[in-house]
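Q: What structure does this chain adopt?
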Amino acid sequence: MIPRDDDSQRWKLTIAYDGQPYEGWQSQPSGNTIQDLLENALAQFNGLPQGTRIHGSGRTDAGVHADGQVAHFDAPKHLTLDENAWPRALNARLPASIRVLRAEIVPGDFHARFSAVAKTYIYKVYIGNILLPMLAGRFHHVPFPIDIDALLRSANILQGRHDFHAFAANRGPGCPPPRTTIRTLSDITLLRPQADQVFLRFTADGFLYRMVRLLVGTMLQFAQGKLVEDDLKRFFEGPSTLKTSACAPADGLYLTEVVYPLNPTDPSFPHIARRC
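A:
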């Protein structure tokens, strides 16, 4: 954990953003990321130390959206901003495509990334010949029919505790691989808000780099008849060099919830607190 001054208090933020204009969450030299813009907003507060950092629950890629990203930062206790004032003050300093939804004081050992016990992503697919302009960049456009029953069968095969090495992309030079590629994908739910839309909701104790997009791309291939059940099972049973080649675009992906224990200091906490 990052050391914290005793004269400061830790604030947890829940954040929503349209990922289209930005280069993802993590700070970049260009300064055009969610983290950079949030830190620039914090830098405009006279009472905050220069260079106050904000720590996110995870790094979303360029074009990926969020309506439940979580971050934290430390602020001096003498600042008079409360839970209602922080969102108003930050939003006044942010572009309209980034909104702080909530702010709350949390214990000093809370960490947006390391305290999380689960995350939920939703991937939005639009099925039809023409994608409406207002949905561009917010849905993955699939201009051909999808076998919904096959999509459900693929979800039943993929969910559970597995070695998801086949659904992990490489981050590139200088980025070490994850310590383990075993994850518990506790739930894949298919939602149909409209006849021409399919939402795939994924909940897991952690996600590998581009894991959701690789799962979605593979599921869509299965729904088109390009893969069979044995192919899906082979991804779990095959060598670590076996990778799926199907990666859905960033457009339809939303980080919608980050889950934390009700009592983070209790190691015996038995279940995940979920908001439905």
